[in-house]
Here is the input.
Amino acid sequence: MNIVLLGAPGAGKGTQGQRLVEEFGFAHISTGDMLRAAVKANSELGQKAKSYMDAGQLVPDELIIDLVKERISQPDAAEGSMLDGFPRNIAQAEALDAALAEMGRELDGALLVDVAADVIVSRLSSRRTCRACGFTGSDKHEVCPRCGGEMYQRDDDKPETIKNRLDVYESQTAPLVSYYKEQGKLWAVDGDRPVDEVYADVKKALSL
Ligand code: AMP
Here is the structure.
C-alpha cells in the first residue's frame, strides 16, 4: 500500500503514522524527519534547508522531490510506503504520481487527519519531541516515555513560527485535499479525539 498522510502541522499525522508503522511495518517516510537529520548532520542539504525550516516556510521543491524519489525506490519501500509531510503542494503531488508511475506503482490514497485550527495552535505550542528517537509528546513529558531521551521544543514549534506554518499549510498544502478528493482517493478522519480512537478510525478508513 502506498499512502500519503495529510493534515495541518500538529494534527497528529506523525503519531498515527508511527502507530501504523509499528503495527503493519510500512516504510515510514517523513520528509520533516529526513530534513531534521540533515540539519543535525550539517550536510549540504541540511545547510540549504535550515533557514526555510526555522522560518516555517517550505524548503524548495527541487531539494525535496529528488530526496523522496530516491527514498521510495529503496527496497524497504517496495512493499508499501507511508509518506508523512510529503507532498506539501500540488507540484510535489504531481511529481509523486509521476515517480510512482515510472516504478509501475500507484498511490492508493491520502489519509487526512482533520483538526480545527484553534486546536492545532495549542497542540503545537505544547508539543515536545525526543532528541534521540523523534517520539512526539507534550510538555507534560520531562523525558521520552519511549526511550528515556531528552525532550525538547522544535524551533519551528515556537509561537512566532507556528503562524507561518499554518499560513503555509492553508495556502499551499490544503489544496491537496481537493486534489485527492477529485481522484476519489481521499479518506478523512476526525483527529480531534484521543489518539487511540483516531487510530481505530484510521485503520477502518484504510480497511486494515
Ligand atoms: P514537518 O516535520 O513535516 O512539519 O516538517 C518540518 C519542516 O520541514 C517544514 O516546516 C518545512 O520547512 C520542511 N519540510 C518538510 N517536508 C517538506 C516538503 N515536503 N516540502 C517542503 N518543505 C518540507
About this structure: The mean pLDDT is 94.
